[in-house]
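tool_call: predict_structure(chain=1)
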Amino acid sequence: MLLNDKRWYETAYRRAVIDMHIPDWDEKFLSQFNADQYVEMLVKSRAQSIVAYGHSHVGLFNYPTKVGQQHRGLKGRNILGEVIERLSADTRIAEVLVTKSELDETTKKIHTTIKFLEYDTHDRPLAPKYFTFEGNVIQFESLVIRFEDEFVRRGDRLRGKSIYLFMKAFVLDEKSAQVFDISSAHSIPAGYKIPGETSEFETRLWGEFWNYALDPKTRHRAGIKNAQIEAPGSMFLPGMIYTVRIEHDGGIRIDSQPVPEILKGEKV
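tool_result:
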């Protein structure tokens, strides 16, 4: 994790610590724990830091474990994982780094080479792609499907987060466009596969994209809020790391921060 100038505890003034030291002599205890309501109340409180209990003072775990005893009322549920998942408002889907930046003395234009590294649904890196552009204001064309709020709130397995498909990286100028393909509209890269689902399901999802975008009834039947093309972009400069994120109830954004001081000037 890259650290900001300030430590998190210097700006986190609203902190939530909800004691959960609950015994299990009655199996009803914690048996009706609702992670959605729990997180909804935390969000309403505007807490800036949260303590989520994995183990209580009575010696019981709130997640399955082989090294201790789980709370009997949970019956194998991982409520710690459920809370953490619902507290995650966005997911990292790619990182971008400028590997080369040169000024063409003849044209007075900057030539920029970027490394585009995607992450799969398990946050594992895919094979990197390299693109070289004339210019440094670069955009990423993507298909994005947002699901209805009710699915996102309850962390639905299939519709609990917005989904995306990177299509192209491009630069626009006054006279032309420089475009590179990232993935094909007619194929689903392995890293995009929804865990536990068949290719048929995903193929239908992306194959019906324009029906979702244009037909309200089709969207409603599928539990989709909207489907659209997005093209987030930024000015890409050396010495910066750009993190591309998908908001679970929204679209794609690009965050940027300097390369950590310890890595500057080093080849790693």
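agent: The chain is about 15% helix and 35% strand. Proceeding to next step.
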